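Work Package 4 report. The design task specified in the project plan requires that, given a folded chain encoded as structure tokens, an amino acid be chosen for each position. We show below one input record used in the internal validation round.
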């Protein structure tokens, strides 16, 4: 009976160590995924900024309608900046 308890205890410890190692591996993998996710978010934001810049550049080179669209976007940005300033002052 004592050998049976000893065997089961060793098996339980072995299972615990296995699960502990798996948990640590998964925690490390999760951290790597989070870091990769953050890198992708930064890359997406940079790409969006490049796209916006290209749109504005194209608008200034393009037709009158394109320039009108660019002017509208710039006016919207200025209005939003003015709203932000008003909120900060208020």
């Amino acid at each position: 009976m004592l050998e049976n308890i000893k065997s089961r205890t060793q098996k339980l410890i072995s299972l615990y160590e296995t699960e502990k190692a798996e948990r640590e591996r998964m925690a490390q993998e999760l951290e790597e995924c989070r870091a990769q996710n953050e890198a992708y978010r930064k890359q997406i934001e940079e790409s969006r900024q490049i796209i916006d810049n290209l749109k504005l550049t194209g608008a200034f080179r393009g037709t009158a309608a394109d320039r009108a669209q660019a002017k509208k976007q710039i006016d919207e940005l200025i209005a939003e900046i003015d709203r932000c300033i008003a909120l900060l002052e208020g």
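The chain is about 95% helix and 0% strand. Validation will be extended to a larger panel in the next phase.
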